[in-house]
């Protein structure tokens, strides 16, 4: 027996999805197609005209050693922020889930960082981490020169990664907590009666049961670290020192808007777009197989 | 009930729109976008108000876009959507793109076709040449212009027993060393992001080319030659001073900018724009005494004029005859000697015309604090007639090339990269940017 609801009116469904379709077309497909066109031309910034250059823009960026360094840096950045942010969030969520003293308070407090806009957090962290005057910078008075993100590229990258991870903790925390609370109490209680300590219960019971959430967060975090790092980097380091915090999205911004190389930036965004698509595809194809939804 | 309310709302809107539209009928409104913020933005608004009150035919609407980069980006976006302002302020590094775009109305043509007589030769040569074609025709109106100078803490100079101000790099080194020995922790404040004063101005006053073809004035096929000139030695010297702790890194990232470190008395020497002269005067901490001088030279070299920095006003294409008349009237208003003088007095930018400068000198403006010392900027700008190397920089996507220089200096200072190889790599990178630019404007001729 077929049980499908359908509209007799052929126009109504289109009217209903119309607004959403228009939004997607105007804010996604139209700019993307524009970028795609620019990526194959050399576009004059003031719009005086352009020349079709086939794949020249892509060849130019793929030949550039610095570009590959940016790609590798972005990958490193994505893995570190995602790993760090999710691990800390899960750790916190497990504690809050155990209904210890003050749980209610922590449930709301841990979400706060997510409400802070990245540039605002960037400015705050810039002051905190400033080597010559900041809070963290005061360790330089104990051990001179031990912390200096303004001249040391590794310090600068670590600083931005920590800040990005910190910003994401609230978001991850809420999802983890919700997932953990979905697990029937009886299961954990049964485990406890069998003598499993909290840590053991976490690894053998809770984690396997929340894999769909872990998988979802993994994708969201990876994508966000590729595309949302701009606000932080622009306010904290502007890609420096010596380009050591220049990730793909920041290079796109710089080449396009500061350097007025619209075509080069367009080609880079197309590459970034396909990278994110590929990443998501790979995760759905292989990682998801290990995820159990029921 | 609802329909009555709707009706009354609609009629209110209609009445309001008529009421607001009516006075504008008589006047032609046009927009001016600029890239200054804070105190300077207020000064621009004063100027706009002054213009609007001085006549009744036109109304200028002045919109701040916060900074030069935003102004350029927003103007481009607006131009592409055909919503551009009539007048916009574009900074030095964005000049060439606009020149090649054909999106502007040359200032000379605009003024003469609207019946205004401007004495173009009156503009300071160093300033005029930056905003002119290779044949010397001015395309935009110089507006807020500056050049770099060096600032000294006079107490620190006195403490190490130096009379006057050092005028050569050798003297700067001696003085700075003496300061270090006298217990000053930061003799010279240095920010690699200041490539404009530490690199471009150095090249200009030492008459060194940054690129062939007269720094690009001669054509889009210019090539970078920084690694073949004096800057190799200069960067080597900077690195040596940095390693010895005589030059100290100060930047926004480090927690304190070079300017802040100087006005707080923590650093004793810094180099910056003359436009900061006024700011330093206001911000200097209690007991910090300072003065400024022209940028130092190496003793075996002859000084040439320094480069102009800052921005100029461009008139964009695609507006109505009436709006152009308004823009011309506005430019004419700005060019009046008293306006030019007020602007320069209240901001710290240099007067852009010889007449303006002479008038300010005659008034005794430069004789006393807080303005004493500002005349050195004009002296530096007009020290010699502009040469091929000190006329200006006309290189494509120059903002990117400048950013590469900042990276290069950082790499040498912080990562001990070898100077010559780094500058050669910089030249190669710069050439890549230039070739790409040349290809984008294939067949275009420099005006």
Automatic annotation (TrEMBL), chain A:
On subunit structure and binding partners, the annotation says: The complex is composed of two ATP-binding proteins (UgpC), two transmembrane proteins (UgpA and UgpE) and a solute-binding protein (UgpB).
Give the UniProt keywords, A-Z: Cell inner membrane, Cell membrane, Membrane, Transmembrane, Transmembrane helix, Transport
Tell me its family. Answer: Belongs to the binding-protein-dependent transport system permease family.
Q: Where is the ABC transmembrane type-1 domain?
A: 71-283
- Name it: sn-glycerol-3-phosphate transport system permease protein UgpA
Q: What does this protein do?
A: Part of the ABC transporter complex UgpBAEC involved in sn-glycerol-3-phosphate (G3P) import. Probably responsible for the translocation of the substrate across the membrane.
* PROSITE patterns xrefs: ABC_TM1
Membrane topology, from the record: Multi-pass membrane protein
Q: Where are the transmembrane segments?
A: 12-30, 75-96, 108-129, 154-180, 207-226, 265-284
> What's in the GO CC field?
plasma membrane
Organism of derivation: Devosia riboflavina
Localization per record: Cell inner membrane; Cell membrane
Which InterPro entries is this protein grouped with? MetI-like, MetI-like_sf, UgpAE/MalFG_permease
Protein's GO biological process: transmembrane transport
TrEMBL record, chain B:
Pfam families on file:
SBP_bac_8
From the UniProt record, give one GO term of the biological process aspect.
transmembrane transport
Q: Where is the signal peptide?
A: 1-26
Residues in coiled coil = none
Q: Which GO terms describe its cellular component?
A: periplasmic space
UniProt keyword annotations, A-Z: Periplasm, Signal, Transport
What SUPFAM superfamilies does this protein map onto? Answer: Periplasmic binding protein-like II
Q: Where in the cell is it found?
A: Periplasm
Describe the protein's quaternary organization and the partners it interacts with.
The complex is composed of two ATP-binding proteins (UgpC), two transmembrane proteins (UgpA and UgpE) and a solute-binding protein (UgpB).
Report the family membership. Answer: Belongs to the bacterial solute-binding protein 1 family.
Functional description taken from the UniProt entry: Part of the ABC transporter complex UgpBAEC involved in sn-glycerol-3-phosphate (G3P) import. Binds G3P.
Q: Provide the protein name.
A: sn-glycerol-3-phosphate-binding periplasmic protein UgpB
């Amino acid at each position: 027996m077929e049980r499908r609801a359908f509209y007799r009116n052929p126009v109504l469904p289109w009217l209903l999805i119309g607004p959403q379709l228009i939004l997607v077309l105007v804010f996604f497909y139209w700019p993307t197609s524009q970028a795609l066109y620019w990526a194959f031309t050399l576009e004059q910034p003031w719009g005086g005209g352009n020349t079709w250059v086939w794949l020249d823009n892509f060849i130019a960026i793929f030949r550039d050693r610095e570009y590959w360094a940016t790609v590798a840096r972005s990958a490193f950045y994505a893995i570190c922020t995602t790993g760090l942010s999710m691990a800390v969030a899960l750790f916190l969520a497990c504690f809050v889930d155990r209904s210890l003293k003050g749980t209610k308070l922590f449930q709301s407090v841990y979400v706060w960082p997510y409400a802070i806009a990245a540039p605002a957090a960037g400015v705050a962290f810039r002051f905190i981490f400033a080597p010559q005057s900041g809070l963290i910078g005061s360790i330089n008075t104990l051990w001179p020169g031990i912390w200096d993100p303004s001249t040391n590229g590794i310090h600068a990258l670590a600083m931005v990664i920590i800040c990005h991870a910190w910003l994401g903790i609230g978001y991850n925390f809420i999802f983890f907590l919700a997932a953990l609370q979905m697990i029937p109490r009886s299961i954990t209680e049964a485990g406890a009666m069998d003598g499993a300590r909290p840590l053991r219960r976490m690894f053998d019971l809770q984690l396997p049961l929340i894999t769909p959430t872990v998988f979802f967060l993994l994708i969201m975090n990876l994508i966000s670290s590729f595309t949302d790092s701009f606000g932080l980097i622009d306010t904290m380091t502007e890609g420096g020192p010596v380009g050591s915090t220049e990730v793909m999205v920041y290079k796109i911004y710089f080449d396009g808007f500061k350097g007025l190389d619209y075509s080069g930036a367009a080609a880079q965004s197309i590459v970034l777009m396909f990278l994110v698509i590929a990443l998501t595809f790979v995760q759905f194809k292989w990682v998801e197989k290990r995820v159990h939804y029921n | 009930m609802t329909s009555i309310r709707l009706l009354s709302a609609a009629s209110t809107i209609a009445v309001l729109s008529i009421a607001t539209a009516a006075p504008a009928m008589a006047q032609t409104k046009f927009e001016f976008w600029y890239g200054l913020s804070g105190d300077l933005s207020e000064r621009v608004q004063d100027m706009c108000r002054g213009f609007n009150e001085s006549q009744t035919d036109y109304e200028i609407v002045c919109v701040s876009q916060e900074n030069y980069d935003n102004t350029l980006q927003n103007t481009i976006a607006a131009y592409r959507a055909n919503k551009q302002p009539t007048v916009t302020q574009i900074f030095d590094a964005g000049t060439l793109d606009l020149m090649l775009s054909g999106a502007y109305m040359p200032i000379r043509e605009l003024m003469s076709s609207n019946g205004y007589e401007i004495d173009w030769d009156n503009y300071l040569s160093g300033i005029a040449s930056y905003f002119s074609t290779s044949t010397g025709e001015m395309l935009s109106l110089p507006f807020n212009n500056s050049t770099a100078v060096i600032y000294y803490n006079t107490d620190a100079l006195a403490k190490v027993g130096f009379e006057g101000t050092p005028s050569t790099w050798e003297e700067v080194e001696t003085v700075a060393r003496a300061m270090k020995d006298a217990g000053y922790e930061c003799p010279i404040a240095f920010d690699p992001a200041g490539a404009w004063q530490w690199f471009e101005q150095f090249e200009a006053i030492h008459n060194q080319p940054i690129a062939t073809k007269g720094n690009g004035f001669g054509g889009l096929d210019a090539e970078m030659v920084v690694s073949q000139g004096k800057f190799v030695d200069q960067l080597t010297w900077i690195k040596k001073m940095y390693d010895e702790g005589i030059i100290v890194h100060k930047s926004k990232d480090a927690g304190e900018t070079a300017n802040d470190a100087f006005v707080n008395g923590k650093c004793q020497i810094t180099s910056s724009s003359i436009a900061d002269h006024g700011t330093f005067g206001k911000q200097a901490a209690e007991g910090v005494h300072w003065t400024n001088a022209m940028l130092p030279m190496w003793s075996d070299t002859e000084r040439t004029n320094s480069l102009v920095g800052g921005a100029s006003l461009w008139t964009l294409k695609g507006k109505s005859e009436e709006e152009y008349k308004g823009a011309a009237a506005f430019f004419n208003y700005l060019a009046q000697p008293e306006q030019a003088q007020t602007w320069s007095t209240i901001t710290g930018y240099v007067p852009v015309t010889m007449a303006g400068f002479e008038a300010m000198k005659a008034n005794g403006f430069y004789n006393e604090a807080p303005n004493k010392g500002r005349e050195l900027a004009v002296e530096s700008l007009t020290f010699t007639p502009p040469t091929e190397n000190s006329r200006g920089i006309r290189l494509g996507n120059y903002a990117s090339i400048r950013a590469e220089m900042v990276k290069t200096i950082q790499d040498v200072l912080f990562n001990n990269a070898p100077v010559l190889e780094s500058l050669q790599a910089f030249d190669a990178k710069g050439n890549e940017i230039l070739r790409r630019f040349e290809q984008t404007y294939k067949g275009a001729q420099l005006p």
